[in-house]
Structure formats: structure tokens, C-alpha cells
Amino acid sequence: MDIYAQAVNASAAGSLAAVKDADRKHVFHSWSAQELIDPLAVAGAEGSYFWDYEGRRYLDFSSALVYTNIGYQHPKVVAAIQEQAARLCTLAPGFAVDVRSEAARLIARRTPGDLDKIFFTNGGAEAVENAVRMARLHTGRPKVLSAYRSYHGATSAAINLTGDARRFGNDSATAGVVHFWGPFAYRSPFYSASEAEECERALAHLEDTIVFEGPQSIAAVILETVGGAPGVLVHPAGYLAGVRELCDRYGIVFVLDEVMVGFGRTGTWFAAEHWDVIPDLLCFAKGVNSGYVPLGGVAISGAIAETFARRPYPGGLTYSGHVLACAAAVATINVMEEEGIVEQSARTGAELLGPGLRALAERHPSVGEVRGLGTFWALELVRDRATREPLVPYNAAGADNAPMAEFAAACKKGGLWPLTAGNRIHVAPPCNIAADDVAKGLAVLGEALAVADAHTV
Known about the structure:
It is built from 14 helices and 18 strands. The strands form four sheets. The chain has a seven-stranded mixed β-sheet, sandwiched between helices. Strands 13, 14, 15, 17 and 18 form a five-stranded antiparallel β-sheet that branches. A four-stranded mixed β-sheet has the order 1-2-3-16.
């Protein structure tokens, strides 16, 4: 009997009601008006699927929040956590522990350039917080530049760095953050006629921002290697190399945020490999152990590590490099290597998701653009392909967001769990999703797009 059948048989008649009741009374959910939500009660998960207490299965095209890169309940990672828990559950971060050292070694082995020192955090936002702190201490400068259409986390510095609407309710306007426009050819802020022109104009705009803000005041430029939450924004050729050159010219630390795209998501271990770019600091989390136990971190270049060789780094976390999380990371990285999951992600994108999503775009007028890499894609949904008017307005809610809500409901009705954001659906299944599950998901997505088509002109 598989995990799904066991879970369905084990579900007592009152389990669903009890879970929903306790959730409603005691759980405070993120990013939500508490009385306006009705979270699905999940009974179990395996591979690319999860299911509710009534046995309804959902194919997860969101990888939870884009982190179950190896799927749910991989037996080798579950076993590694169990074995580690039996031997040593936790230890303070000041000690050298075998699995912590091995996790750091395995990560450093795959990071680009000389990013060989690993500072562990509990997640991606904390990784960004500490990368910014390191950059400021290394340079002695206060400002950090980040792009509009970005997301870097919900902690203090990270949410101020964020360039999407989630910043609005949290922006302190005192965080030393300056935003700039990155390239986005489909909705170009530079009126470009080509990707090459978009790249050139975006780099000129960034240099102008640096010059007019004062290079001597800027500690870092931080970018998502591929823009995640803002819409799977794949930078044009030459852009990241151009940013690297600007940072070198003005003595600015270059930080890449790979929290969402690291560890196979784009078909390489780190997305920076697509453009042969080496940052000074690289933030990671999510896929490092598929979220089985919270873990994140910063990979640090030799020059920045040297700053703290004889000068204490004024930062730390009680659970930095948590033993169970590191055991999960070691097992996850080894599984990805043994099973060729990074290569599978690349093939799935090139042979299945990319062609399949482009075929859907040809049939559905609500699809304005398809973009992505590996197992990380987005469909930009529009009311009018000619004008590129979004299917729903920016930061839409309530009635204004009805077309996207109807579209998402249609996906769920078909047994597909979608990840929608703004006027987009992000297609981010586990990196090791089976080919027949890709086909199944695309079929449901095609049916749901008919609902979006009804709102086009």
C-alpha cells in the first residue's frame, strides 16, 4: 500500500473538522486577512502530489512555495533526517559538527568562483539580511540598490529591498535602499525595441542611478538571478555581466539572490551558471534541502571572508546550521547528484514545459508571453495581446482580481494546484516531475486557460 492509500485509510471521520477548527482558532496566516481565507486541510503528500482529508489529490505545479525541488517525502532524505535525529538532533552553532561541515562543503563545491565560505541561516530572508550586513561592513557604505519587480523576503531589510507591492505595508523609507528599473522587454520601462536594446538601456539606467546616488555611498547591488515572485523574469544576455562590470568599476559588492532558483530549479545548480557570472555574495535557501527542515545561507567570496578573518562578524542565529536541516541538505544534494535531478530539470524545461506552454499560448488569447528555464516558467495573462493589458490590474484584490481567482479555481477543480501572482501563473513543479505528470498538468492548465480567455477582448 502506498503512502496515499495509507493516509486515506488512516483519516478518521473527525480529522478534517478538527484540523480546520484548530486552524481557524489558533493559526495566524501570512499575507492574509484572517477571516477571508479558508485554507485547504492537507492530509499527506508524496512526490509531485498532495491530498486532502477526503482523498482528493492535487498535482503540485507550485512545489509548495517553489522549494520542493525533489518532491515531497523523498525516502532517502526522510531516512537521513530520522537517522540524524536518533544520533544528534541539535547543537549550538559554535561547534564543528560533521553534517554541518559536510553540508557547507557540498554547497561550496557547487557555487561559482571562490564562494567557498558558507554562513547558514534559517531561510532566504535571513540570508538576504546577512548578505546586506556583510556588504555594508565590508565596504563601510550604507546604501543598497535593488530592482523594482523583485522579492527578497519579509524581514526588515529584505522587505525594504523588495520591489513589488508586498513592500507597501512594511516600507520604513529609512533602510538605505534605492530602487531601480531592471530589464523586462515585454513591459519595457525603457521603450526598447529589442532585448539587446533593453539590456543596453537598463545598464545605462543603473549606472545613472549609481552616479546620482554617489558610488561612495553604495555598499551593494542585489538582484535575483532570475526574478522569481515578480514573474520569472529571465535577464537578457549580457545584463548580469554588465552589472558585474559596473560593481567592479565602482567598488560595489554584487549580491545574487538565488533563494528561489538555486539547486536545480533553472536546470543548473545555480542560475548564475547560465550567464557565467560570479557574484561576491550568493543567497540560497528553499531547494538546498527541498524545505524538509528550514535552512538558508550566504555563500561568501574570499575577499569578503577575509574582512572577517580577524574582525568578528557581528551577527548570528541560534539555529544557524541546524543539525537536522544540514543532514537534510547533505541527503538532498546527494540525491540530486545520484538521480541526475538538475539535468532532468533542464531536459523537462527544454523538451516538455517550454514547448508545451508555448503550444498553449498559440491556442489561448489570454497568454501574452511565455518565459522560463528548467522547471521555472510563467505565463503572462492579458486581456488584449495587442495592447498587453494585464488580465487584472497591478496589486488587484477583490472584484478586480476575479478573472485570476476564477482561473485558479478552474486549475484546482481539475486537480492541479497553481501558483498565481498578479496576472501570472508560475509553473514550478518539482525538478524531478515525471513526464506523464507534466502532460497531465499542461492538459488541466489548457482547460483552465479557457476561463481566462473569456475575459479577453
